[in-house]
Amino acid sequence: xxxxxxxxxxxxxxxxxxxxxxxxxxxxxxxxxxxxxxxxxxxxxxxxxxxxxxxxxxxxxxxxxxxxxxxxxxx
Length: 75
Hints:
Blueprint: H1 3-71
């Protein structure tokens, strides 16, 4: 075989291996980053849910305070 053909085949093989390797590494990094973002979103959602519950409780407390002031009951 001609030397140029052998070199071009080696070059092609190296290019394919490098490209596929880069794609795999990039895919793993993207998956990792998405996983980390999902964890952050879950933590954020937990905070939002707790805040919503606390706001509901505060509405109840404020309503109880208004009722106690209107009826003259003191705790």
